[in-house]
Design a protein that fits this description.
CATH superfamily of the largest domain: Bira Bifunctional Protein, Domain 2
Strand content: 25-35%
Protein name: Glycine--tRNA ligase
Radius of gyration: 26 Å
CATH architecture of the largest domain: 2-Layer Sandwich
Subunit structure: Homodimer.
Helix content: 25-40%
Shape: globular
Distance between the termini: 14 Å
Organism: Fodinibius salicampi
Keywords: Aminoacyl-tRNA synthetase, ATP-binding, Cytoplasm, Ligase, Nucleotide-binding, Protein biosynthesis
Low-confidence stretches: none
Number of domains: 3
Largest sheet: 7 strands, mixed
Number of strands: 24
Subcellular location: Cytoplasm
Bound molecules: glycyl-adenosine-5'-phosphate
């Protein structure tokens, strides 16, 4: 058997659309950039990944509790968090085409081109200049100078006719209430991360859930960023979902907890069924850390677009709680009765994008296989997160077979997401389920219903396409055992 893995992101984009995992938003109107909708299979897959995360993070930890904060928050939250001031990308416009680019990315791309052309020394020099471009005020001027001095042209038009570099805030702004004046005073933002909902509720949760430090608050929800370079499918979206957990610890224990959570989170990806050689951790160098972090690392997956961040783990120190204390005037501290000590807790954050996790799972599971001159596309998803768990087919449309197939469907439906299908040849039905990632297909045939004794059916396994004949009463046991023992190939 020859096996081909995913080489190109377009293959997954097409499969996702054809099989009902992910569609472009408002497609009949020409689509909306970097916004996507999840179809029937995608909704189930996404929900299963979300549920798995929730279970591992909350149910398996008696000191982590859940929260569901609003998308809208008081505008002061975003001043305190640093997002109003600093959540920017430096942008430059090509005057000829009116296309907008991220200025630092233009320089990065130019460096990559220099390296490709063997001009390593020039590339190193420019990289050093880029790495030392001023932060905040100086950044725009520095980047503009680099673009002009290196004669970097607009990628699409080829023109060398640039505007100044300007900071572009990534938060979406809207107005609150009917009497809004349209001034910035009324502005509210669509949250760009779920984390702040956790910080501002720190005291509420601590007081009501009777938690002692260390403890965590977990949350899943939508976040919004007006990404300028928005491409690569659901990897970079303007509306996306985050699964975040903030773990509050005593200062001084923060680094050990940071290491612990980085390792635990990497294990979660492996348990999800992602192959180990496609995962790695990537610590951020000190000079590239976000303003709130003293240590940070990405968990990266090797997508067809290269190694990219799927999750971030950060040691955020007491930055957020101290900022909210300062801006709100409300103390966000913890009193340790045993040690008779009061302090502002440090925070270890784990933050994963659910959409990037869905994309990782699809990319990792995708295979094209040639078997005895026949070919198939298959998603070898972990059965625990597969959208449909079991396909149930009568071999042909005959009452006797249909009745038993419906009975099995009815019996299993309570515990599993099942699909009854009687249309097309049995081979076609298997292929359809292979592409949907359905791990088990049960076929009801005459040999099974007409033999002496208990009815039997065949169960066909997606990954190796082998089949077993099983008495109907043992179906749950066999499926349960196969689900538990599944390993990625
Ligand atoms: N609270 C910390 C925080 O938001 P981040 O690195 O900006 O940190 C965390 O985002 C995760 O959210 C990323 O690792 C990524 O998986 C996901 N994410 C961020 N921006 C995204 C976007 N535009 N589209 C899809 N996922 C995104």
């Amino acid at each position: 058997m020859s096996v081909t893995e995913l080489e190109n992101l377009d293959t997954i984009v097409s499969l996702a659309k054809a099989r009902g995992f992910i569609y472009q938003s408002s497609e009949i109107y020409g689509g909306l950039g970097a916004v996507y909708d999840y179809g029937p299979l995608g909704t189930e897959l996404k929900r299963n990944i979300r549920d798995h995360w929730w279970k591992v993070m909350t149910q398996y930890h008696d000191n982590i509790v859940g929260l569901d904060a609003s998308i809208f928050m008081h505008p002061k939250v975003w001043e305190a968090s640093g997002h109003v001031e600093g959540f920017n990308d430096p942008m430059i416009d090509d005057k000829q085409s009116n296309k907008r680019y991220r200025a630092d990315m233009l320089v990065e791309e130019h460096i990559a081109k220099l390296r490709k052309d063997g001009k390593e020394e020039e590339a190193d020099e420019l990289q050093e200049l880029l790495d030392t471009t001023g932060k905040r005020e100086g950044l725009c001027k520095d980047l503009h100078k680099l673009i002009i001095e290196n004669e970097i042209r607009a990628p699409e038009s080829g023109a060398f006719d640039w505007t100044d570099v300007r900071q572009f805030n990534l938060m979406f702004k809207t107005q609150f209430g009917a009497t809004s004046s349209g001034d910035d005073d009324d502005a509210v933002y669509l949250r760009p991360e779920t984390a702040q909902g956790i910080f501002v509720n720190f005291k509420n949760v601590m007081d009501t859930a009777r938690q002692k430090i260390p403890f965590g608050i977990a949350q899943v929800g939508k976040a919004f960023r007006n990404e300028v370079v928005a491409r690569q499918f659901v990897f970079r979206m303007r509306e996306f979902e985050q699964m975040e957990m903030q773990y509050f610890v005593e200062p001084g224990t923060d680094e050990e907890n940071y290491e612990k959570w980085l390792s635990k989170r990497l294990d979660w990806h492996k348990e999800l069924g992602i192959r180990e050689h496609k995962l790695r951790t990537h610590p951020h160098p000190e000079d590239k850390l976000a303003h709130y972090a003293v240590s940070a690392a990405d968990i990266q997956y090797e997508y067809p677009i290269g190694w990219q961040e799927v999750e971030g783990v950060h040691n955020r120190t007491d930055f957020d709680l101290s900022q909210h204390h300062e801006y709100s005037g409300k103390k966000l501290e913890y009193y340790d009765q045993k040690k008779q000590k009061r302090y502002t807790p440090y925070v270890i954050e784990t933050s994963i994008g659910l959409d990037r996790a869905v994309m990782m799972v699809l990319c990792d599971a995708y295979r094209e296989e040639e078997v005895d001159g026949d070919s198939r596309t298959v998603l070898k998803l972990n059965p625990k997160i597969a959208p449909t768990k079991i396909g149930i087919f009568p071999l042909i449309k005959k009452d006797k077979l249909q009745d038993l197939a419906h009975k099995i469907e009815h019996d299993l439906r309570e515990d599993y997401n099942v699909l009854y299908d009687e249309s097309g040849s049995i081979g076609k039905r298997y292929r359809r389920q292979d592409e949907a990632g359905t791990p088990f297909c049960i076929t009801v045939d005459f040999d099974g219903v007409e033999s002496e004794g208990e009815d039997t059916v065949t169960i066909r396994y997606r990954d190796d396409m082998t089949q077993d004949r099983v008495p109907v009463s043992r179906l749950r046991e066999v499926i349960g055992e196969k689900m538990r023992s599944w390993k990625p190939e």
